[in-house]
Amino acid sequence: xxxxxxxxxxxxxxxxxxxxxxxxxxxxxxxxxxxxxxxxxxxxxxxxxxxxxxxxxxxxxxxxxxxxxxxxxxxxxxxxxxxxxxxxxxxxxxxxxxxxxxxxxxxxxxxxxxxxxxxxxxxxxxxxxxxxxxxxxxxxxxxxxxxxxxxxxxxxxxxxxxxxxxxxxxxxxxxxxxxxxxxxxxxxxxxxxxxxxxxxxxxxxxxxxxxxxxxxxxxxxxxxxxxxxxxxx
Amino acid sequence: xxxxxxxxxxxxxxxxxxxxxxxxxxxxxxxxxxxxxxxxxxxxxxxxxxxxxxxxxxxxxxxxxxxxxxxxxxxxxxxxxxxxxxxxxxxxxxxxxxxxxxxxxxxxxxxxxxxxxxxxxxxxxxxxxxxxxxxxxxxxxxxxxxxxxxxxxxxxxxxxxxxxxxxxxxxxxxxxxxxxxxxxxxxxxxxxxxxxxxxxxxxxxxxxxxxxxxxxxxxxxxxxxxxxxxxxxxxxxxxxxxxxxxxxxxxxxxxx
Amino acid sequence: xxxxxxxxxxxxxxxxxxxxxxxxxxxxxxxxxxxxxxxxxxxxxxxxxxxxxxxxxxxxxxxxxxxxxxxxxxxxxxxxxxxxxxxxxxxxxxxxxxxxxxxxxxxxxxxxxxxxxxxxxxxxxxxxxxxxxxxxxxxxxxxxxxxxxxxxxxxxxxxxxxxxxxxxxxxxxxxxxxxxxxxxxxxxxxxxxxxxxxxxxxxx
Lengths: 233, 256, 204
Ligand SMILES: Nc1ncnc2c1ncn2[C@@H]1O[C@H](COP(=O)(O)OP(=O)(O)OP(=O)(O)O)[C@@H](O)[C@H]1O
Ligand SMILES: [Mg+2]
Known about the structure:
By secondary structure, chain A is mostly helical. Chain A has helices at about 10-20, 20-45, 50-65, 70-80, 95-120, 120-130, 135-165, 175-190, 190-230.
């Protein structure tokens, strides 16, 4: 059996084939991320509507989406949605993946937004009120400029997390790197080399970005510490 | 004359390039109460952290009860002390911290019992009896099952003192134990220290900005300035007869 | 099937978390590097990739026919989330206030006693909410085992779907609800853990 041993020849043969899927992986990551940024905003907005029962429902819908597997959610959107009467539409694998993964992670993104908003001190809200700013101006000039910077490293982390979740889309036949690796494996009865390539691609791309974000985080922290020190003195 | 229980011999300490202590020579006798005063940054904290072995001197020796803190004999050579040696010498020393450092996951009583039971392997019932007595003595007999988070700062500091005393150290170190407290809580903590100073025969080293109190209970006062002991003697000598200008200007800030 | 994998993988992940988390704090540089390598490799790639990779690699590298893919699922999920959780272990231990170590030293505790009585109990309290969160992640991760041919809930869902397409929505909805019901106690435990973590730990 020629597939039992590691072969560099096959490794090199599989490399371009797998790499061909990389741009789909990247496009999908970016699309999912943008979609979840947008939808996270919707969640945050919905949660701020001060009706108790409504708030409760939003909270639990988010909890439901967050604590059930994205894989099943993908299947639901791709396989089940078209069959649903009236509202059902058939979506392309790519669109399903963007919707499914984007929606799943938007519930996490919403938490980040919330943390950012809550990190703005109570005094800032009161000062904005005391200056008689309109709601629009209050958010635009006082709250958001302070709430957004601390969320940036966290959002960066989620970008990397989503990048690593994108291979789930291979299960609904999006031809990203994992699917291509599996395809290569099925054609040549050799899975190990193409799958190793996929692993290496992820490591090579995600590790440096993670290091970069950690640096960014440290930098931001020191900046905010300085601000805090200036405030208290 | 009794032999000193603590000796600093030419002790220097640097953090990176900054020389914080520049040749400290100091003897402390058993049961002697020493107050360390001096401007901020003069090295007061460092001097007692060295004694507690929380920092290692850059050069010089500290000898406690005849044992060199950081050096031990091995095959006839003096080598850097290992953990065993350090634990051996630490047994004589207790410390109370500025920020209490109580263990938040333990009750007040457990805070006082853990070390005697597990470090000194003493009988649990005896330790409990002693700990309860000590907590009563510092006025917290009704709080023994509370957690630190349920106490005021002054109460926390009194627990910290009880915790240290239950270990029966020969030397007790206090690092500005009242400076993290609200002014109205300072008195209750000072009272406990005064009680210990009068009724316990351990040596005490007290770093403090409570000048009147320090001068009142201390047998010996050290004025530390820029990493050297600029003046030392009895409270009376230091205050009334010192010619040291920096000391006079330092003291004048505490007199209204 | 889902439940047994969840339990076994969680247990394995917790063990790996402590082993790797503590070895990254070790004084021995080799132990530290090995721990770091493990964590970076498993955090740097996806669970689904690891699962497939192990599925094909384990039989080949170890030259055994693995009796059941159940083990592969447990190992992959456990190794993956163990790597994430080891970071929780490590950072919790590091975030116990330095003053706690100093107070314990002043009470003449040995380094083992300091860890055992002072640092570790506080760090564990801080870890609880994150362990709860990651256990929910592990639960979600178990859905992947159907991809290597294990007959979990999702697998049965797929079977039913392929025989009767019109009930597909209901099938997947039931599967989702099934996962959610399993997650509920974990969500509850996580919130409890947050309460416990708030009290009883001195952190920087
Ligand atoms: N761990 C450390 N690393 C670097 N520098 C330190 C460290 N600890 C103390 N220092 C420096 O050593 C000097 C003396 O510090 P020390 O804490 O002993 O002063 P102090 O007399 O206790 O002052 P204060 O009255 O403000 O408590 C200071 O300049 C301080 O910045
Ligand atoms: Mg000090």
